Amino acid sequence: MAYRYLWTPLELGPVTTRNRIVFSAHLTNYARDGRPTEQHAAYYAARAAGGAGLIITEEHSTHPTDWPYEKLIHGFHRDVIPGYRRITDAVHRHRVPIFAQINHNGGQASSMFSRLPVWAPSPVADPLFREVPKAVTRAEIDEIVAGYALVAEHCAEGGFDGIELQCSHSSIVRGFLSPATNRRTDEYGGSLLNRTRLLTEIVAAVRNVIGNRLALGVRICGDELIEGGTTIDDAVEVATIVEATGQVDYVNTSIGVATASLFMIEASMHIPPGYAMFIPSAFRKAIDLPVVGVGRFKDPLQAERALAEGHCDLVGVVRGQIADPDFAAKARAGATDEIRLCLSCNQECVGRMGLNRWLGCIENPRTGREAQGVGTVRLTPKPKDVMVVGAGPAGLQAAIAAARNGHRVTVYEQQPQAGGQVRLAASVPNRAEFGDMIRNQLAECRRLGVTIEYGVGVWPGFVAERHPDHVVVATGAEAQRPWWVPADAANVLDVRDVLRGAGTGEPGPAEGDTVVVVDEVGFHHATSVAELLADRGCHVEIVTPGMVVGQDLGITLDMENWWMRAGAKGIVQSTDLVPMGFAGNEITLLHHPTGTNQTRIVDWLVLAVPANPVEWLYHDLVAAGVSVERVGDCVAPRRAHAAVVEGERAGAAV
């Protein structure tokens, strides 16, 4: 068998997993009014049907003082139990065990929703929420322990096969474990044994409630990556204490603190896969309990290697199964080329959480809509000939959706290869994985029998010659110069021009040149090209009208590492500057907080500014009476997720 270790069963107390792939706990924002929903059931069931060995749900709150975000499951209310039953029944239909993660976020929260003081071991404000918590009393500690036991009882009644205690990246238990947040002088503070006391009391209380019927696991942070916080040596000692209780069946792992070093918990593509493997590896050397390893596993080969090398006993694959629910089944069938690889772009999973929206996926339009039946095959009794113009993400997704339902689809692409703007975006430093989106779509097109013709321009006469039953126009967008840039300025480039010319010898910024990049988009456009030019030896400054360069990088957890790389490469970042004009080699900038003008003398000006939709073909076809729809940037230039969603809708509607 190609993957010897992945398909080996494993016992976790009373539960046996069929394989070693875990769909680990992560937030979804699918809850309503504190209760789980049908979308939860459909979401987890899809991953169970796709072959996951074990599913662990998102956290369930154990106490009314814990309400850090709006769409949290309030496990302490009995009215969650019917929702629990729907989830567990849906997953059990696929013979997959499912555990419930239970938690109290402690000081990593605010009182905005609860209108109650935030509880923590000590009055240390969290760096994100910035609210000073109430140091809990002994009576309140007893209440916390009782809350965990109560929710565990609800979970058992709801049909779960096990309980996982979240004591890692966002938890009151982590707060007690960490010397950075626990400044107590009583029996719950000081020595590591004292700081572990709350955890062991919760373990005992939960085990007392669930008995030996359910498995019990503990998720521990191996390194908080903050000053004065928990280190790997501390974490290993905590794991040995947990094992010594004799009441725990496995240990899960994590890295970082959710509100201080979150960018390392849900790392983007700039962080190498397996970056956190030192944590489960250290645990496994110290304890005999099964250990779960996590850390951006993109494909089954990486997971198999971690198991084969003895770093862990199970592998947490979250974003990989968000992108492709059939990750495990495809791996087991030997169809690894068909796996829709996660991009680790964090745009629609992590990013949507930060915006208080439900979890989705940039390249899988079904994720987050499983309960609505999005992406379901609906074979048509009357197949049509469908022409798709453009092989970017919108056009390819339209082709996939139409072909999936039985239509005959041909895609015409003017360029010699597919990808559009995604292909360009993937050509910059540390962004190559973004290109997996097109790789994944092309693999699906091949599987569905979609024909793609390259180097073909399309105009109304061409469409008339082919006489398709329906046309989907996905012609994208093109660069445009803003009003303040002269049309004949020769030393002005769009970011697309820089990327297309990279390494081709075309005229453009060279070593020693001074370059100003104007960021009016606020995402990877300006920062990626700035890095490319800095690596080329240019002197680079990014100016933006915003308060932060690349402001949306914060949503995808790319901001911190961008700052580090920009500093190392000498890239200057200048904010609150509105471009007002460009003449010769001088750009005039209005500093809008003060109303004063600044100037820069440059060799090259590079623009990351809004694009212009290429919509003429669509309008011409409408005028000619052709059955036509348009999708993606030719409707309005946006990001890739909008292109994929629109392509799915248009293709499925044919």
UniProtKB/TrEMBL annotation:
Record GO terms (molecular function): 2,4-dienoyl-CoA reductase (NADPH) activity; FMN binding; iron-sulfur cluster binding; metal ion binding
InterPro entries xref list: Aldolase_TIM, CHP03977_oxidoreductase, FAD/NAD-bd_sf, FAD/NAD-binding_dom, NADH:flavin_oxidoreductase, OxRdtase_FMN_N
Taking every annotated instance into account, which residue ranges of this chain make up the domain FAD/NAD(P)-binding? 384-543
* Sorted UniProt keywords: Flavoprotein, FMN, Iron, Iron-sulfur, Metal-binding, Oxidoreductase
* One Pfam match: Pyr_redox_2
Q: Which cofactor does it need?
A: [4Fe-4S] cluster; FMN
For this entry, list what GO says about its biological process.
Answer: fatty acid beta-oxidation, unsaturated, even number, reductase/isomerase pathway
Domain NADH:flavin oxidoreductase/NADH oxidase N-terminal positions: 6-337
Query: Family, per the entry?
Result: In the N-terminal section; belongs to the NADH:flavin oxidoreductase/NADH oxidase family.
Put simply, this protein is called: Unannotated protein
The record lists the organism as freshwater metagenome
